[in-house]
Fold this protein.
Amino acid sequence: MDMPSLKGRVSDEEWQLRCDLAACYRLVAAYGWSDLVFTHISVRLPGPEHHFLINPYGLMFDEITASSLIRIDADCNVIGESPFPVNPAGFVIHSAIHEAREDAQCVLHTHTRAGVAVSAQRDGVLPISQQSTFVLASLAYHDYEGVAFRPDEKPRLQADLGQANFLMLRNHGLLTCGRSIADAFLHMYVFESACQIQLAAQAGGSELIAVDPRIVAGVAEAMRVQTGGLGGAFVWPALLRKAERLDPGYAT
């Protein structure tokens, strides 16, 4: 989509966040995690206003650019001008998490086949892979209450999430949060991988071998020492190069 560039019209810090968030949308599409125009990735902007960037509703994830991202306030009111609408209902989950978690700069939500499938399993994520140990070290669950557009669901969602960085929305999908866009993306990469591996292992029909609970506990302690992150910043430069190879137009 051709949009007037906002480069030079917003702060350097906001422009960098816009470029990183646009790259994140493009990468989510490239990895097959998008759901047409549905679901969202939000990032909190610096400053006391509690403003956020979110996708313009109606654009496919592989169409999103830095300049097309929309700035909104905590009530999903558009700040500035945009030819595109936003989806207030879609921001309910995101606003709840941003409101409760100052450390959650970025919130990423998906409706992948594997994620929804595992979210419908009573036991949720099973400790059967290395990927699952990272998820289980910081995993929470939230029961399905219908399409998430009612503000009264927010306190229950916040309570269920607590300080976890991985949230399985029962019968709905996956959600991750992170101190940066890079961390939220890497968390989702691991979360999605754990779900895909679980379904593949279950499809094999053999008895599954569980990881020793002491190992899972050790991973949780290691992540706590690392302030809750998997180190998304280490892989993010490589992912940006991938986004650049796919289409450098994301950063316009």
About this structure: The mean pLDDT is 93. The CA atoms of residues 133 and 216 lie 5 Å apart. The domain at 12-251 is CATH 3.40.225.10 (L-fuculose-1-phosphate Aldolase). The radius of gyration is 18 Å.
